[in-house]
Amino acid sequence: MQKNELHNNSPSGDKRYDYIISGAGCAGLSLLMRLLQQPSLRHKKILVIDQSGKTQNDRTWCFWEKGKGLFDHIVYHRWQHIDFQSDHYSSHLNIAPYQYKMIRGIDLYEQVISFAKQFSNVRFVYEKIIQLKTENHIGIVETENNHYQAEYVFNSVLLEKIQPIKNKYLLLQHFKGWMIETAMPAFNPAVATFMDFTVDQSHGTTFMYVLPVTEHKALVEYTLFTETLLAPEAYNIALGDYILTRLKVGSYKIIHEEFGVIPMTNQKFASHQGRIIHIGTAGGQTKASSGFTFQFIQKQSKAIVASLLLSGKPSVDDRLTKRKFNLYDSVLLNVLANKKMSGAEIFASIFQYNNTETVLKFLDNETGLLEDMKIMRSVPLHIFLPAAIQELFK
């Protein structure tokens, strides 16, 4: 077995595959799982390439969902009730028919990789990807050491940093989370704090998540929507102050830390370039106005597999409904980036004047026009209408 391979059941010189999955994160592994669940696709020769192995719990995904999803069996914790808190409006919300769910990164990685080991036609290699291209209707992945070819390459790797461009917005959702554990009971594991905006807003849109998994353990996450990152120590200070002054927890130990940066932009991401099909954040599956990604990844991977089953080709259709929600996202980014209204006020208004199920549907890009109109009526028309006109005629 070569040093940079997890397993390789193909001849060592074989560099041609049916599908290559570039990036073994949430998007790549979600697609792999769905491919291998289909009897007519699971025999395909599949190569998964990532720079390094997935051996650490490097992130946590939280999302809302009706019923059971693809990864329901590895949900670490779930909540039926959430709290929304701000200086403008606060409420305790029952989110039925949804549940708010948490999945740890390591659990997803281990589940999919373990499942994939059952298939001799699936190969993992760990190499740095240098370039992706299409030649003669073949997708090509160039790494530092090899060239690999496939009928289609599904890519979730951002090979270049996203740069600001004229007439587009680029905010960063950046966050630091601590999983803390207390000796004495300190949390209610039945209720998650979905957003707490009652923290300092001087940097921009800022809120806390509190996600209890037992009476003694919770993930506390400090999240901001701004143009630049904070100094590293600023995240620790904010978390420590919130835990002490708001949660009233003076003694605890940090058992896990995570940090992340998610682009919030209305820049258009190419859905495909020849035989290169972009997935995940690289394929525009991060919602520009909120940073939510996990469920959009699941929808995209499900649609790709359905299209492969139907026609043998992956779907790259940019539907009208997607363009509608892209416009809504652009309008909200316009308001936030130009500081016309604070994020705390916007989200407070949306939650205060709308049914919770409708709000969650809207954030999932699943509402119809009448529901959209209700959401729009809950925010100030004199602020959002001019922003909408600006975005429509750019």
Structure description:
The chain has 394 residues and is an alpha+beta fold. 28% of the residues lie in helices and 31% in strands. The chain has nine helices and 19 strands. It has helices at residues 26-36, 105-116, 232-245, 294-311, 320-337, 343-352, 356-363, 369-377, 381-392, and strands at 5-7, 16-22, 46-50, 60-66, 77-79, 81-85, 91-94, 98-104, 122-126, 129-135, 138-143, 147-155, 170-181, 191-196, 205-212, 217-226, 253-265, 272-273, 276-278. Strands 1, 2, 3, 9, 10, 11, 12, 18 and 19 form a nine-stranded mixed sheet that branches. The protein has a seven-stranded mixed sheet with strand order 7-6-14-15-16-13-17, with helices on both faces. Strands 4-8-5 form a three-stranded antiparallel sheet. A hairpin with a 5-residue loop joins strand 6 and strand 7. Helix 1 (26-36) runs parallel beside helix 2 (105-116), helix 1 runs parallel beside helix 4 (294-311) and helix 5 (320-337) packs across helix 9. The longest helix is centred in the last third of the chain and has 18 residues, at 294-311. The chain is globular, with a radius of gyration of 22 Å. It starts with a strand and ends with a helix. The relative contact order is 0.15.
